[in-house]
Structures are given as structure tokens and as C-alpha cells.
């Protein structure tokens, strides 16, 4: 299962006192399981924006601690700044990065808002996707009147806070109120143009941005802007939903750019925006020569872009993610103005690199893996080897699919084989993860046996831990069996209809898949036999036996395709 990762971007009403800013930042740094990516103070606005990421529980806990620290250190009754604000922690959005939906982030935001109100006595307004009322999706509605207007709003019914609403008092005078919400990831991107004209860059920006441009009398660029019955300027919308854009000239590069914020990547993915800016620029005689991402992006943004451009080329998308990202970088010219390092621009990679590197079997060379297996240590053992055999089976099926997608004369079948390769990649990643998980399962059993057993309570706790670890050690190889069994339909299809020159590769894959299923089955049996609760063991053994029988039959079907 994909790890859930969210981003939090709280705005604190202090941009001048470095000690306060550092104290809040340190609270986040010290929170387990999160990484503080950026601290951006503004002196004129008297406001600091901090960005941190991690798994949901860790991020919401760090956010709560940061709000608490800000409430202790910032006195809103003495705050002055250029930016709209209403609280020590002014806004606190949760943003989905990976493995989690915007709706799930909205629910997390409501729970966090309720906790802030209940435990810290800070009134909270829920905004954007977490809004409790439609009109409060708009942050400006929640922040109406700013800090100075709170005394007339709090505890006054309709205008009051969603959580912790109460009359203005000494506490709220100090902390103000906080807006907690959920929104999609915002991508800031600049499109490089082969012109120095800011006017042309602006024209392109107005063509594509959602707001568009004012409608003018006679349809002439210099015509008077037209207004409706209420006196509001009539706008001609642009072509890209969820975007804001402007044109400017950059002295550093000597070119004009279209600078864009994509506020809804579900409606307008990065690659869609890039292609549309290219189209609009070409219509005005201008070329887009590349793009510059400002800040960070979720991995899915580049993966989706890379797959989009591979499909345009009618090439397989079932390739390693590093290669897909490389295609995205080259297709959009993200490295035109300087090197583009995904490890420094992708949120998930930055979070991975911040964690201590775990010793994983799958990070070893083949030689080191073989030597580790051959050592006197009992792990890695047959379970990890079975999972790796399954990994190789999926890899061979994926290879045949990719070779078939690129085979000369088979151009009309590229999508069929690309889909097969994507399925192979999914199975490969699943089985590769089980290589290390099987060894982890063994280590859990050993750790349980090493628990103290002096008192009756310790004996009971030890017995319970051993039973739970043993059940897990039986379930992991069963998952290996299931995943390895899933490779057979792919291998059979590739042996029958894939590149004829690679039929032997598909057949070797089937041999490896059968070995994976039968080998993992042995581990299911030996661990299930150690379970005290035979009712828990029985269904595991029944399913294992069924998968073994299916694997024998499936391997035989694939091998019949080898006619040499």
C-alpha cells in the first residue's frame, strides 16, 4: 500500500522576531515523523510561512504543537503587518501529497480544528475543502474584518467560529482565531519564452489563466473594458481551470516568462498546463523553450506528466519511475535554466532522504544479497528468496511486454502491451517489498521469543506476542503467494501473443513464479504449524494449497507455448 503523505503550510503572525520564529520552527523539527522543508519569514507582512511534510498522524500532531507554541509566544493585541490576519496561527492548511485524498485531508483538518479549540481554547474557522458551510470555502469570508473584527463576530451566532466559538475575552484577544482547512497542492511554475516581450507574455498568460481577461468594447485590445448591470468588469475566461498567471521579464535569464500558480492539479495537471501554454504561445508566434518549477511538487505530478508524453510517443509506460520522471523533465524542459534534481524537488524523495537509511535486502547488489543469504544467519531465508523469485517473474513478464510494445510493425498494439507492462511493474514493486517484509516477519518472531518471562503477566504478554508474530510470519508469505500467482496471466499472455523472440523469457518467468508460490507456501505451512490457535491457521493453509495447485497448472500452460 502506498504510504500516506500530507503537507502542512501554517502561516504564523510573526515575521520579525527571529527568536519566536525559530522557537516555532524548532517545535516542528523536534516532532517525530515530519520534515520541516521551508521557513519563509516576511518583515513587511510580519508573517512567516512554514512548510513541513510527513504521514498524517505525525503532521497533525506537529501542527498542533506548533499552534500551541505560537499561542504562547505571539500576542495578537500587539501585532501589526501588511498581510490580512486574524490569529497567532492565522491559517493552517493540510494538503494531500501521496496515498490520500483531499476529502480525507478535509476530515483530518476538522478533527485538528476541533482539538485546537478544545485543548488550546483557540476559536477555529474551517475553510476551503474542510469548510462546514459553503460560503466559508473562501478564506476571505472566514477572515472577514481580520483580527480587529473578531470581537464583533465571536460568540455572535452565524458569524462565530466553527469550533470553540465564545465571546471575546482576554484569551482570544491574545491568540485571535485560526483558520484550519484542506486544499489541493499548489504548483508554482514559470514557462520560459523565446521573447523578451512582457506584453506578449502577459497576453499568453491571460489566454490561459482561469480568470482570463476583461471583455473590451468592439473586441479591440485597447477598447474600453465592458461592465455588467452591477458595474462589474465582464471577463472572458481563459482555457485552464484552477490557474492564475501573469507575464514578466526576468533580468537574470534575459527572457520573458509566463508565471503560473496551478491551484487545482486535479483539474489542470502540470503537463496539461504546459501543453496549453505551448499552444497559446505558438498562436502568438512565440515558443515555450522550457519550464521552471518553483518549490516542490508531489511525485505523481511528474509521473503523470512522463506517462502523458510517453503515450504521445506511443511508447510503453510500464518502465521504472526514474525513467518516467526523466521523460517528464526532458519533455517540459525543466532542466533548461539549470540542473533539475528530482531528489531536491519531489516531496516524497525529500522525505525519504531525511529518514535514516534502513538496511534493505533490495538495496544490495546481487552478490551481496547472495552472500548475506549464504551466511550463518537464518535470515534472509527461503521466504525472502521466494519473494525475490516472484519479483524476477514479474520483471520478465514486464520486459516481454515492453519489448512487444516497441516491436517494429506492431505499432498499433503498443497500448495493449503498455498496459501489460504497467501491470507487471505493479506486481514487481509489490513482490520486491515482500523480500524485506519476510525477513522483518522473522525478526519479529525472534524478538517475541526474547521477551522476559519471569512473572505470570510477562509470560502471558510473551505468549501473546509470539502468537501475533507467528501469525504475521505466516501471512506475509501467503501475500507473496498471491502476488506471485498474479504474474501467471501476464506471463501466459506474453508467451502466447507477445514478441515471439521472447517466449523463452516468459517461460522462465513462469518457472520463477511457480517456485515463488511453492517456496512461499512452505513458509506458510511451517509458521502456521506453530500457531496455538488452529482456527487462525486453517484458512491460511487452505488458501495456500489452492494457490499451489493453481501455480502448477498455470506454469504448465505457459510452458506449452514453448515450441522449440
Structure report:
The longest helix has 42 residues. The protein folds into three domains: 178 residues, Formiminotransferase, N-terminal subdomain (Formiminotransferase-cyclodeaminase, Chain B, domain 1); 167 residues, Formiminotransferase, C-terminal subdomain (Alpha-Beta Plaits), CATH 3.30.70; 199 residues, Four Helix Bundle (Hemerythrin (Met), subunit A) (Up-down Bundle), CATH 1.20.120. The two termini are 41 Å apart. Strands 1, 2, 3, 4, 5, 6 and 7 form a seven-stranded mixed sheet that branches. It has a four-stranded antiparallel sheet with strand order 11-12-8-13. It has a two-stranded antiparallel ribbon with strand order 9-10. Strand 11 and strand 12 form a beta hairpin. Helix 8 crosses helix 9. By secondary structure, it is of the alpha+beta class. The chain is built from 17 helices and 13 strands.
Please specify the SSE layout and strand pairing:
Elements (H helix, E strand, L loop, with lengths): L4 E4 L2 E2 L5 H12 L4 E9 L4 E8 L1 H18 L15 E10 L3 H19 L3 E5 L10 H4 L27 H6 L2 E5 L4 E7 L4 H11 L4 E2 L20 E2 L6 E8 L4 E8 L7 H14 L4 E7 L4 H14 L8 H12 L9 H4 L1 H8 L11 H9 L7 H24 L8 H36 L6 H42 L5 H26 L5 H26 L5
Parallel strand pairs: 5-7, 6-7
Antiparallel strand pairs: 1-4, 1-5, 2-4, 2-5, 3-4, 8-12, 8-13, 9-10, 11-12
Morphology: globular
Biggest pleated-sheet summary:
7 strands, mixed
CATH 2nd-level architecture of the largest domain: Up-down Bundle
List the domain count as a whole number.
Answer: 3
- Global structural class: alpha+beta
- State the CATH superfamily name of the largest domain: Formiminotetrahydrofolate cyclodeaminase monomer, up-and-down helical bundle
Percentage of residues assigned to helices: 40-55%
Mean pLDDT: 94
What is the number of helices? 17
Name the CATH class of the largest domain: Mainly Alpha
- The percent range for strand residues is 5-15%
Question: From N to C, what is the helix and strand string?
Answer: EEHEEHEHEHHEEHEEEEHEHHHHHHHHHH
Which ranges are low-confidence, i.e. pLDDT below 50, for 5 or more consecutive residues?
A: none
Cα end-to-end separation: 41 Å
* CATH topology (fold) name of the largest domain: Four Helix Bundle (Hemerythrin (Met), subunit A)
Amino acid at each position: 500500500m502506498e504510504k500516506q503523505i500530507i503537507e502542512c503550510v501554517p502561516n504564523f503572525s510573526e515575521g520579525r522576531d527571529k527568536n519566536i520564529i525559530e522557537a516555532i520552527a524548532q517545535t516542528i523539527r523536534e516532532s517525530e515523523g515530519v520534515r520541516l522543508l521551508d521557513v519563509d519569514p516576511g518583515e513587511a507582512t510580519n508573517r512567516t510561512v512554514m512548510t513541513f511534510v510527513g504521514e498524517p498522524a505525525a503532521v497533525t500532531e506537529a501542527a498542533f504543537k506548533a499552534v500551541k507554541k505560537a499561542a504562547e509566544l505571539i500576542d495578537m493585541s500587539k501585532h501589526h503587518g501588511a498581510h490580512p490576519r486574524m490569529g497567532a496561527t492565522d491559517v493552517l492548511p493540510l494538503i494531500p501529497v501521496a496515498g490520500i485524498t483531499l476529502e480525507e485531508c478535509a476530515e483530518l483538518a476538522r478533527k485538528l480544528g476541533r482539538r485546537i479549540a478544545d485543548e488550546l481554547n483557540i476559536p477555529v474557522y474551517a475553510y476551503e475543502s474542510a469548510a462546514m458551510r459553503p460560503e466559508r470555502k473562501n478564506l476571505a469570508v472566514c477572515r472577514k474584518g481580520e483580527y480587529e473584527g473578531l470581537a464583533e463576530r465571536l460568540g455572535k451566532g452565524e458569524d462565530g467560529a466553527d469550533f470553540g466559538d465564545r465571546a471575546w475575552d482576554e484569551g482570544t484577544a491574545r491568540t485571535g482565531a485560526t483558520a484550519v482547512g484542506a486544499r489541493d497542492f499548489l504548483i508554482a511554475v514559470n514557462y520560459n519564452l523565446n521573447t523578451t516581450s512582457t506584453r506578449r507574455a502577459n497576453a499568453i498568460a491571460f489566454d490561459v489563466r482561469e480568470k482570463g481577461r476583461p471583455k473590451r468594447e468592439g473586441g479591440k485590445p485597447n477598447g474600453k473594458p465592458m461592465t455588467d448591470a452591477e458595474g462589474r468588469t465582464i471577463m472572458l475566461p481563459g482555457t485552464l481551470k484552477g490557474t492564475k498567471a501573469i507575464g514578466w521579464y526576468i533580468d537574470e535569464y534575459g527572457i520573458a516568462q509566463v508565471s503560473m500558480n496551478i491551484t487545482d492539479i486535479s483539474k489542470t495537471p502540470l503537463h496539461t498546463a504546459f501543453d496549453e501554454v505551448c499552444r497559446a504561445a505558438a498562436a502568438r508566434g512565440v515558443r515555450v523553450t522550457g519550464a521552471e518549477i518553483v518549490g516542490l511538487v508531489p511525485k505523481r505530478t511528474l509521473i503523470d506528466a512522463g506517462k502523458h508524453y510517453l503515450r504521445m510517443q506511443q511508447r510503453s509506460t510500464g518502465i521504472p519511475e526514474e525513467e518516467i520522471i526523466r521523460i517528464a523533465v526532458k519533455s517540459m524542459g525543466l532542466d533548461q535554466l539549470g540542473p533539475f534534481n528530482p531528489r531536491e524537488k519531489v516531496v516524497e524523495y525529500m522525505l525519504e532522504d531525511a529518514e535514516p537509511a534502513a538496511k534493505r535486502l533490495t538495496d544490495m547488489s546481487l552478490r551481496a544479497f547472495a552472500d548475506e543469504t549464504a551466511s550463518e544467519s537464518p535470515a534472509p531465508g527461503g521466504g525472502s528468496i521466494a519473494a525475490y523469485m516472484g519479483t524476477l517473474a514479474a520483471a520478465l513478464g514486464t520486459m516481454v511486454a515492453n519489448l512487444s510494445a516497441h516491436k517494429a510493425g506492431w505499432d498499433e498494439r503498443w497500448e495493449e502491451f503498455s498496459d501489460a507492462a504497467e501491470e507487471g511493474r505493479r506486481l514487481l514493486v509489490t513482490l520486491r517489498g515482500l523480500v524485506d517484509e519476510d525477513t522483518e516477519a522473522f525478526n519479529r518472531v525472534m524478538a517475541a521469543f526474547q521477551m522476559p518471562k519471569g512473572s505470570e503477566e510477562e509470560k502471558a504478554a510473551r505468549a501473546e506476542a509470539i502468537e501475533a508474530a507467528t501469525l504475521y510470519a505466516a501471512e506475509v508469505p501467503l501475500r507473496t503467494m498471491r502476488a506471485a500467482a498474479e504474474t501467471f496471466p501476464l506471463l501466459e499472455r506474453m508467451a502466447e501473443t507477445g514478441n515471439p523472440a521472447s517466449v523463452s523469457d516468459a517461460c522462465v518467468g513462469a518457472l520463477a513464479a511457480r517456485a515463488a508460490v511453492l517456496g512461499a507456501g512452505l513458509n506458510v505451512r511451517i509458521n502456521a504449524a506453530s500457531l496455538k490457535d488452529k482456527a487462525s491457521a486453517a484458512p491460511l493453509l487452505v488458501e495456500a494449497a489452492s494457490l499451489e495447485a493453481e501455480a502448477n497448472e498455470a506454469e504448465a500452460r505457459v510452458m506449452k507455448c514453448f515450441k522449440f
